[in-house]
Amino acid sequence: MPNMDEIISGHWSVKALTASVILMIVGMVGSMLGPGEAAYSTDTPLKCMNPECDYAEVLSLDDFNALRDQYHQQWVADPANAEMLQYLTSTMTMGMPMMMDGPEGMGNPDDMIRFAWGGSMFTPQGELPMPLPCPKCSQKMVLRAIQCPECGEIFKVSNDPKYTDKCPKCGFSRQEERYKEKQAEKKSKKDKKKK
User: Buried b vs exposed e over 160-175: b needs ≥16 C-beta within 10 Å?
Assistant: First the structure.
């Protein structure tokens, strides 16, 4: 999977970037609070995806937003990123005018790019991470994650298509618990109708 350094240095094609920007809204809206029902609170769990690093931390939403904003400001100020910033801004402005305007709009392109840090864009080639730098290993591999409410483990969103919040340590999934509750309610209603 490419990271922002690879994108900036030109290892990703303009065609793939165009598709990324066009589809980025879906990923950003979906990742606003994390992976669906797995977003348990306003705290923001972070995890370094470098397998050799064990950095994992839970930040308040305000602290996470401050970290993301600080990194975005540094990224925008770096002259090496000017061409990519211009490309993303012009593509979003041309391709998504209806998303920019009005009270329900996502805001200006700069806000949209800033929002993606620590999350992902979804492209035809797969998920494109927008990682933050890790305070422990210094690699740009920190993404928003999930914290298990049962055991406290912080982990990457699960690949399980049914339960993206399934904890790899204890196996707990709030999504699975809710599914079971709904199934029990449906069964109870059917049983009542039979009587």
Answer: eeebbbbbeeeebbbb
- Long-range Cβ contacts of 126-133 (<8 Å, 24+ apart): 126/1, 127/1, 127/27, 128/1, 128/2, 128/7, 128/20, 129/1, 129/3, 129/49, 130/4, 131/3, 131/4, 131/49, 132/46, 132/67, 132/68, 132/71, 133/71
| pLDDT at residue 25 is higher than 50 | no
Cα of 78 vs its chain's centroid, Å: 23
More confident of the two residues 195 and 150:
150
Report the C-alpha gap between 62 and 33 in whole angstroms.
13
How many Cα atoms are found within 13 Å in the side-chain-facing hemisphere of 167?
A: 15
**Lookup result for tokens 């972070």:** 46
Q: What is the pLDDT of residues 130-170, one digit of tens each?
A: 789 999 999 999 999 999 999 999 998 877 788 889 999 99
R_g of the chain, CA atoms, integer Å: 19
Residue 119: phi and psi, rounded to 5, are -125, -140
Query: What per-residue confidence (pLDDT) applies to 159?
Result: 79
User: Do residues 168 and 153 make contact, with C-beta atoms less than 8 angstroms apart?
Assistant: yes
pLDDT at 4: 45
- Cα 37 to Cα 27: distance, rounded to the nearest angstrom: 15
The token duo for 148 is: 């298990």
Chain-centroid distance of CA 22 in Å reads 16
Q: What predicted TM-score, i.e. pTM, was given to this entire model?
A: 0.63
